[in-house]
Design brief:
It is built from 11 helices and 10 strands. It has helices spanning 18-21, 40-47, 62-66, 84-92, 113-123, 135-141, 171-180, 187-192, 196-203, 209-220, 241-251, and strands spanning 4-9, 32-33, 36-37, 52-59, 75-79, 101-105, 128-134, 150-152, 155-165, 224-228. The chain is globular, with a radius of gyration of 18 Å. It starts with a strand and ends with a helix.
């Protein structure tokens, strides 16, 4: 598979960010994690990856984000759109975009080159791939962790903040994603958008995660793949103070 263009979403939610302010900043992406601005950690992992040949960091205040990133010709820091989906949809019609695209987030502080290689290798050939971690694997590694779980026949999963976009035909999927952005933490609403049959199948545990995604893919004319990451820490992001404490402990070897 050809090397991917990495997109790091480093935007902020509208309004006051009390989480960021608790750590001395007004931008979540700049929260320090073990002394390093959070956004720099996934960017450094992507720079070290042999599977990535360019990095586009998207933020509402690109100048401030650029100040904390390495000086490297492979990195560009650009203004983001109003929403994640609108930003990526705009990229889909940009003739200068180099495919495929790997999307991750500024709060993926534990991202490693190994996770990137694992995800991209398992995503090859798909139109869209979504990184997940199984509940069993994550709880074996971090028994006390609290996550949002989507439950299907065969297991429950948490998202890993890794998305693969194989080419410009995925625009229809981004339009579906846009309707989900405000409800991404509300699992049942997300399942409802997959269609009544898919929702009931998941609710009654008669459909696997991949079967559910196959159903969505048939409606959209896309191949959508669930990619289970080998490293369960791929599901740990920094979205609240408890996450910050946990990630700090992991990085310091205490968890």
């Amino acid at each position: 598979m050809s090397a991917a263009t990495a997109v790091v979403l480093a935007g902020s939610r509208p309004g006051k960010d009390t989480f960021a302010e608790a750590y001395g900043t007004d931008l979540k992406a700049l929260i320090p994690v073990c002394g390093t601005p959070m956004v720099r950690r996934p960017v450094d992992a992507l720079l070290s990856s042999r599977n990535v040949d360019g990095i586009r960091v998207l933020a509402q205040e690109p100048e401030r984000i650029a100040e904390v990133l390495p000086t490297d010709t492979r990195i560009s820091v650009e203004p983001s759109g109003d929403t994640i989906a609108s930003t990526l949809e705009r990229m889909c019609v940009d003739p200068n975009v180099r495919w495929p695209i790997l999307v991750t987030t500024a709060d993926h502080a534990l991202l490693t080159p190994e996770m990137v290689a694992d995800f991209l290798g398992k995503s090859a050939g798909a139109d869209v791939a979504i990184g997940v971690v199984s509940q069993d694997a994550l709880l074996r590694r971090l028994p006390e962790t609290k996550r949002t779980w989507l439950k299907f026949r065969g297991g429950a999963y948490s998202g890993a903040n890794l998305f693969f976009l194989g080419g410009p035909k995925i625009r229809s999927t981004l339009q579906l994603w846009s309707s989900n952005e405000q409800n991404r933490k509300k699992a049942w609403r997300m399942l409802l958008t997959l269609g009544l049959f898919g929702f009931l199948g998941a609710l009654l545990r008669i459909r696997t995660l991949q079967q559910t995604l196959d159903g969505v893919g048939r409606k959209l004319g896309l191949t959508i793949r669930a990619v289970e990451l080998s490293d369960p820490l791929a599901a740990v992001d920094v979205d609240k103070p408890a996450d910050h404490k946990l990630v700090t402990a992991i990085l310091e070897g205490r968890a």
